[in-house]
Structure formats: structure tokens, C-alpha cells
Amino acid sequence: MDFQPTEERRMLVEMIGKFVQNEYPLKGRLDAGASELGYNFQAYAQMADLGLIGALFDEEIGGFGGAGFDIATVFTELGKGLVNEPLNDTALASGYILAQTGHLDWVKKIISGEKRVALALIENGADYDWYLPETTAISSGDGWKLTGEKTSVKFAHGADAVIVSAKTNTSDGLSLFLVTGNAPGITQHRFQTVDGGSACDISLADTPSLLLGVEGGSYEIIDATAARCTLALCAEALGIMDSIKTMTVDYLRTRQQFGTVLGKFQALQHRMAQMLLEIEQAKSAVTNAARDLNAPTDERNRAISAAKYSIGRIGCYLAEEAIQLHGGIGMTWEYDLGHFAKRLVMIDHEWGDQDHHLMRYAQS
Amino acid sequence: MDLNFTAADLAFRQEVIEFLEAELPKAIATKVKADIAVTKQDTEFWHATLHKRGWLTYSWPKAFGGTGWDPVQQFIFEEECAAAGAPRILPFGIKMLAPVLMAFGSKGQQDHWLPRMCDGSDWWCQGYSEPGSGSDLASLKTTAVKDGDDYIINGQKTWTTLGQYANMIFCLVRTDGTCKPQAGISFILVDLATPGIDMRPIRTLDGGYEVNEVFFTNVRVPASNLVGEENKGWTYAKYLLAHERNGIANIGISNQKLSRLKQLSLTQKRAGKPLAEDPLFAARLARLEIELRNLETTNLRVLDGFSKGAGPGPESSMLKIIGSELEQNFDDLTRRALGRHAQAHTPEVFEPGYNGPQVAPKNMANQSATYFNKRKVSIYGGSNEIQKNIITKMILEL
């Protein structure tokens, strides 16, 4: 047994670390997060050039990674720098679906950063229940027409295309469709997200689209996509936790009150020690999920749910504790911590929250 | 022992409800219930409305123009105001400075400052914390040096809430640096229009602007603005902190958040069913409701003690800890209930004339920002860690 990363992944860690440290200042991240696009396109292209998107996909479809530990490695390192560019939302998710449905031309362009494709699964009233779409697809003479409403589609604004889940008029199963960003009948309501980024509510009215894969046969593909994206989110959270821990320990070491540094107060030492224990548990949860990403479906989903539950619970706890241990300074925009805390808490709202995954684990 | 409200209490509650129905504008209540910051004008309007009825100073004794209500009546008033979505009464003048002036100010100071905080002439803010003095407040370094009939103030205050609207600030300043830190602090009133004062905004993590830094450079203040005796400021500050805790349990606000959350749980869905039927969510909600019912009685037990003559004391630290954490937990669970829509940050829907699309239900459009903003309540007013120190020392005598 060996828990040490491979040489390739060590190099990946080093490369992303350098990129974050030298070329990804938090100020730029916040400005880009508040922009119309919600992120910095140049930074996205730069990351694609560095091969960070390629690392998320198998060699046989044009990548050079694609294993659970590749995905976890990339997103943990990006999380440490609170990187906001949507490698998860407009590359990992859609790239996997397009590869599984044989659209390798798209996959190639996603890996190179030339195309970004968002994923629209969720609808109002089905927050974490992507298997319940009411959007419908009707086959017409020259292809499929989509009608329905999707909500909270992250980083759809500015994407070249959107993959939409729907039910067809001739099948009860789930189907997936590719819709180009400027297709007729598509309207986007773009809004700001609290963790600094953008999302869209998307409305479709007789919007022409391309069927991906088999009509009614996409449940398993979406389930496997969800597993990948959830693992990536959990890994991102782990990186954020690491940065939050460093900031908080540094603060306890330097902030003076009552004639000494805060870190000398036993009550605070014990709280910091507890934070460390929880982060170690979170790391193990992500390790398990990365290991089981390509395991049989039930086993994979149990590990994914275990990780997302752990990350959700521990993430919210850490965000709140870290702010409290900082006191007033942790409440300010100027200090980095708050931005890390916001993203960490919001991760619990994507791809199913801790209660959703606890229940899924219990019922599996 | 009789744990029920009296008939008189119930009649009083009805009177408060009728007043709020008649006088509180819906537009203001909508903002308050959605945790959107009210404007300066909203607060001034509400102060004037309450003042006209004689209720702005509901917590003051009759001798100073208050209502003379007993603690239970005060509690009922606070609870109904919160339930209706009334803006909070600005605590800095009415609830913090006023009790200090009544107890330690000169007759001249009382006659001058108390009416002005009622009729809206003065908007007070607080100058306590400093960059190096948060929980360790007694280590504060802003100095006031006597110069003829004036004091000259130099230093920096921080976390001054709504200082941007204020014209007056009460400060703790160091007047003696040679003794034990607590023994060299004085309590002084400063006109913010005095030359040498610079108020700068601090942006909070939710993007809002409610706190400030205040810089003092050779600010000349008449010595007549000193409250009580020189170097007794720490005693006054502790007195103020104990009185500030009146209503600190925030029962009314938590009750309002509970009913809002119950409503939300009927319309939000999980796995195709109302969220209220989700067993994990239902358990989370039940836990909070039980905590709130417990805290209501804890609060009333403490108030009953006050009305029997026990002044505000370390029990208020207990109410502050439990009340602040409970309020935070309601914001936390409301955020969870919003599911995917918690991520949307769309305060623009509250802008006058907005008629674009909405992502989350309108009264929830600012909910995640509120959740993050409310992390402050376990930090400000003496962090919950400091409150636990007080309990350890004063109640447990450890």
C-alpha cells in the first residue's frame, strides 16, 4: 500500500501551485467573479494550455489522465487558490458526456479550451434531483425541439453550447441534447452568485437541438458525470480547507490580545486541533471517492455520497469556525478568508447537499 | 408560580399588534423580513413614528420619559415588532448611551442629549474597538489629553456600525497610561463634525457596507463632553454592556425566521415532495424550534429575575450566546432549504421599479449574503468566547 502520489501527479501539483501563486492573485479572481462572464477567460485559456483540462480525460479521448486521482489532484490544487474558472462546469461535465456519446470533435476543443459547454440538468423544484426533468423534447422532421426551464446553470453565460437533459415524447428515460448558445428560442437570465461567479436560468421554447447518445438512455451517463463532478467539487473543497487552515493558524500565531498571541489560549488551541482532525477526515473521504470513481456503480455512488456528505458537513463547520476564530477581521471583504469561506459553504449547494448524500448513502 | 401571560399582558400585546398594523409601512417590513438593509430615512421614519406614540424609549424608566413597562411588556413589544418586520431601534443612543447618561451623566448632559436622541437630532455611533483591541478592549490606545477646557483625541476606532449616518460618537479613550489598563479609560462624547475626524467604510464579506473605521487626529473636544469622572470609563462601559443585553436573546427575530422557514419548507421540494416531508430537514427544523422554545423560557426566567430586582448581570451573557447562535442557525437552515437557489445573490430584486425575473423566492433573494453577514452576531458586542469567560468568572467562579 502506498498513499504517495505518482511522479506525474506530483509534477501536476507543483505546476498548478506555481500558476496559482505567480499568476492568480485573489484580487483578480474577485474582480473577474463580479464580471458579466463571472470568470477570467484568459486564465481559463492559460489553464487549458497548461494541460489542466487534458488531465481530466482519458488518453483514448485525447486527454492524459482521467482517473479519480487525476481529477482530485487538479481540483484540490485549484481550490487552494480559490480558482474560479469553470473547469468543472464547462469542461469536466460536458467533456465526459460528449466523449461517452461519441462527439470526440467537441471533446478535443474542450480540452484545448477552444470551446466551453455548460450543463443544464436542474429545474425549479428539483434542486438536487437531476433525474426529474420536466423539460420535453419533441422530434420534428429536421431534428429535436426542446421546451422547458432550467435553473442555476453555472457559467452558462458566454458558453459556446449547453447540454440539456429532457424527456422525449416517445421515451420515459432521460435524454441529453446539445444546444448552441445562440439557438432560436433560448433565453438566459444571468445572475451573480454569492461566492463570486455567474449562473443562468435558461428558458427553452421549441429550441432546435442535437440528441446526444441514445434516446431515453442517458441516466447512467448523467449518473457517472455527477460522480465525476462531485468528486471534483469535493477535491476543490479540500484545497479550500487547506488554505483556510493555513490562514487561521497564521492568525492565531500572530494576533495579540491580552498580552500574548491568541494561539496560546488553550480553548482556541483545542478548536484549531479539532479543525485539523476534521480536515484529515475530509481528505480520507476524497481519497476513497477518487479510488472508487471507476468501481461498479453502487460502490462508486456510495463513496461519492460519503465524500460529499463529509465535505458538506465539515466545510460548513470549518467556514464558520475559521471566521469566528478570526473575529471581526474575518468578516471583511479585504481579508481573504471570507471569500474562501463563501465558496466552501456554497459547495454544499452543488450536486446535492450533505442531507441529500447522507440519505442516498443510507438508502443504498 | 404562574407561567402564563396575564390578561393585561395579552391586552397589551393586542395594542402593540394594532399599532404595528396601522403604522408600519409594508415596503419597510418587506425589506426587514428579507434582511435587506433599511435606509437611513426608513430608520428615521420609524424612530419618529415610535416617538410620536411614546414607544421609542420603551426601555427607559418613566422618570426619563420612558414607558415604565415591566420586562415582560418590553419582551412582548420586542417580539411583536420583530414578527411584524419593524426596523430595529438603533441601539447606540436609545439602548446603550442613554442608560449610561441616566446613571452617570450630569443633569446638563441628560437634559441636552436624551431629548435629541428621541427627536432625531442626533444619530449616535460607538467608538469602542480598535485594530489592536478587540476582545481585549481594555488595551485600547486612543488617547485623550487634557488641554485647558478641552481634550485632544488621537487614535483609531474600528467596527463602528452605521457611522456613515451618524453625527455623534461615544468613545472609550485612554486618559491615563501609567496604571492598570482598565483604570485609565474615560467615556467621552464627540461631535463627528469636529475637524480631524476621518470616517472610512469597511466592506464586509457579503459585499455590504455597515461598519467603519474612524481616525482621530488632534480632535479637540470640550471637557464638558466627558461622561462621569475621568478614568471611570471602564465601569460605565461594563454597565452599558449589561444593559445592551436587554433583548439580546433576539427571540422575536428567531420566531419570525422560524415561521418564514416553515412557509418555505412547504413550497421547496426534495425528491418531488415538499421539503417539510424530508425527514432530515424536518429533524433539523424541529431541533431549532425546540431550542427556541427553551430559550424563550430561559429568557423569561432571566427577565423575571430582573423584575424582582436582580439587575442585568452575567445571565445576559448566557442569553447572548444562545440567542446569537440560534439566530445564526435559523439563517443556516434557511440557506440549506433554498437548495440550488442559495447560490443566487440577487439583491437587485428589491430595487424600486425592478420587474425582471427572480431566481429565489423574493423574500429569500439575499439569504446567503445574510447567512454570511450574520456570522458577526457571535463576534460583536463581546464575542461569545468573551461571554463564556464572563460566565466562567462571574457565575461559576472558576
Query: Mind describing the biggest β-sheet of chain B?
Result: 4 strands, mixed
Uncertain runs of chain B are none
Radius of gyration from the alpha-carbon trace of chain A, in angstroms: 21 Å
Largest sheet of chain A: 5 strands, mixed, barrel
CATH fold-level label of the largest domain in chain A? Butyryl-CoA Dehydrogenase, subunit A, domain 3
Instruction: Name the quaternary structure.
Output: heterodimer
Highest CATH level, the class of the largest domain in chain B: Mainly Alpha
What fraction strand of chain B?
5-15%
Molecular structure report:
The complex is a heterodimer of chains A (364) and B (398). Chain A has 364 residues and is an alpha+beta fold. Chain A folds into 3 domains: 7-115, Orthogonal Bundle (Butyryl-Coa Dehydrogenase, subunit A, domain 1); 118-216, Butyryl-CoA Dehydrogenase, subunit A, domain 2; 220-362, Butyryl-CoA Dehydrogenase, subunit A, domain 3 (Up-down Bundle). Chain A is 50% helix and 18% strand. Chain A contains 11 helices and 9 strands. Chain A has helices at 7-23, 26-33, 41-49, 68-80, 87-100, 104-112, 219-254, 266-291, 297-326, 337-346, 354-362; strands at 117-120, 136-140, 143-154, 161-168, 171-180, 186-193, 197-212, 256-257, 260-261. In chain A, the strands form 2 sheets. A 5-stranded mixed beta barrel of chain A has the order 2-3-7-5-4. A two-stranded antiparallel ribbon of chain A has the order 8-9. In chain A, helix 4 (68-80) runs antiparallel to helix 8 (266-291) and helix 7 (219-254) runs antiparallel to helix 8 (266-291). Chain A is globular and about 80 Å long. The model of chain A has no long low-confidence stretch (mean pLDDT 97). Chain B has a 4-stranded mixed beta sheet. In chain B, strands 2-3-7-6 form a 4-stranded antiparallel beta sheet, with no helix packed on it. A two-stranded antiparallel sheet of chain B has the order 9-10. Helix content of chain B is 45%, strand content 15%. Chain B has 398 residues and is of the alpha+beta class. Chain B has 3 domains: 7-89, no CATH class; 123-236, Butyryl-CoA Dehydrogenase, subunit A, domain 2, CATH 2.40.110; 245-395, Up-down Bundle (Butyryl-CoA Dehydrogenase, subunit A, domain 3), CATH 1.20.140. Classes of the chains: A alpha+beta (364), B alpha+beta (398). At the A-B interface, strand 6, strand 8, helix 9, helix 10 and helix 11 of A face strand 9, helix 9, helix 10, helix 11 and helix 12 of B.
